[in-house]
Write a structure and sequence with these properties.
This protein is mainly alpha-helical and 301 residues long. It has helices at 13-20, 26-43, 48-75, 89-92, 97-122, 124-139, 153-174, 179-202, 204-209, 215-219, 221-245, 258-270, 277-300. The longest helix has 28 residues, at 48-75.
C-alpha cells in the first residue's frame, strides 16, 4: 500500500499531537461539563474532584480511540491514496504502528486507573459504564467487526459521548439520576453524531473501497444530509423539555448556537464530499462546544 509520505517513521511531537486529533477533543470534555452543571441546577451539588477525574478519563478514552483508529485503519488498508481527510500518522509513516498502539493502550490504562476512583465514588453503575466505555473505544476499530465499519457508529457516539458521559457525571456529582441529564445527553450526543456523520460523509468513497458500511454509505448522499440536519437541529428541539426540568435556570441560552447549526446544515446540502468538509467537521465540533458552554452557563446562573 502506498502512503502520502515515504519518509522514515518518526515520533515527533507534532505527529503525536496530530494523531490524537485535539481539534475534536471537546467532544469528550463538553458532556462532562454539562453533567456537572446540571447536577448543580437540579440537585444543588457538584463533586469537583470526581468531575475533573471524569473529564480526564473521557479525554484519555477519546485519545486512545483516535490513536487505535489511526493504527488499525492503516493495517486494514483504509488510509489509501484516495483519502481526503487530514494526514494520518501511521499511513504517512510519521510514527510506527506498534508505537501508536502502545500509546493507545497506555491511554486506555490511564482512563482505567482514574476509573477506579470514580467507581469508588459512584459504585457499580460507574464501574460498568467505565468498562463499557473502554471496551467500546477499542472495539470502534478493533476486533472482528469494528463499530466504525457498520452503520451503528452514530449510535455508539450518542451512547458514550452523550448519554453515558452526561448521565455518568451527573450521577457522580448528585448521587442520583433525573430526566434533565438524559435529555441533555441526547442533545450533546446528537452534535457528536453529527461530527461523525460529516467524517463518514466525506470519506464514503474511500470507506466503501475497504468494505466499510457506515451510515453515510448505507443512507446515500441526500439522506445523509437530512440525517445530519436532524442531528444538528434535534438538540434544540429537546431544549424546551430540558427547560421544564430545570426551572429557575437559563437553560434556554443554549439556543444561541442555533444560527451556527443552520449555517452548517446549509453548507453540507451545498457541498459535495471532498477536502472542504474537513473544516465543516471541525465547525460541527465547535458548535457542540458552544451549545454545551451556553447550556452550562444557563444551568449555573
Amino acid at each position: 500500500m502506498t502512503v502520502d509520505n515515504a519518509a522514515a517513521p518518526t515520533s515527533g511531537f507534532s505527529a503525536w499531537i496530530g494523531a490524537m486529533r485535539p481539534r475534536t477533543l471537546t467532544m469528550a470534555l463538553a458532556p462532562v461539563f454539562v453533567g456537572a452543571s446540571l447536577s448543580w441546577a437540579v440537585a444543588g451539588k457538584i463533586n469537583g474532584l470526581a468531575a475533573v477525574v471524569a473529564m480526564l478519563g473521557a479525554a484519555c478514552i477519546q485519545i486512545a480511540t483516535n490513536l487505535f483508529n489511526d493504527a488499525r485503519d492503516f493495517e486494514r488498508g483504509g488510509d489509501g491514496p484516495d483519502r481526503i481527510g487530514p494526514l494520518r500518522a501511521a499511513a504517512s509513516g510519521q510514527i510506527e504502528v506498534a508505537a501508536i498502539k502502545r500509546a493507545a493502550y497506555a491511554f486506555f490504562a490511564l482512563a482505567a486507573l482514574g476509573g477506579l476512583y470514580l467507581a469508588a465514588v459512584g459504585g457499580w453503575p460507574i464501574l460498568l459504564l467505565g468498562i463499557l466505555s473502554i471496551v467500546s473505544g477499542w472495539a470502534y476499530t478493533g476486533g472482528p467487526l469494528p463499530i466504525s465499519y457498520t452503520p451503528f457508529g452514530e449510535i455508539f457516539v450518542v451512547a458514550f459521548f452523550g448519554l453515558g458521559a452526561v448521565c455518568g457525571t451527573f450521577w457522580l456529582c448528585a448521587g442520583t439520576m433525573a430526566p434533565a441529564p438524559i435529555l441533555a445527553g441526547l442533545a450533546v450526543g446528537g452534535f457528536a453524531a453529527g461530527v461523525l456523520m460529516v467524517n463518514n460523509f466525506r470519506d464514503a468513497a474511500a470507506d466503501a473501497r475497504v468494505g466499510r458500511r457506515t451510515l453515510a454509505i448505507a443512507a446515500g448522499e441526500q439522506t445523509s444530509r437530512w440525517l445530519f440536519a436532524a442531528m444538528m437541529f434535534g438538540p434544540f428541539a429537546l431544549l424546551p423539555f430540558l427547560v421544564r426540568q430545570t426551572p429557575g435556570h437559563a437553560i434556554w441560552l443554549a439556543a444561541g448556537a442555533l444560527p451556527l447549526a443552520f449555517i452548517l446544515v446549509r453548507r453540507l446540502f451545498r457541498e459535495k464530499p471532498g477536502p472542504g468538509l474537513n473544516s465543516l467537521l471541525v465547525r460541527t465540533a465547535q458548535t457542540q462546544a458552544i451549545f454545551s458552554l451556553l447550556l452550562c452557563l444557563g444551568a449555573l446562573l
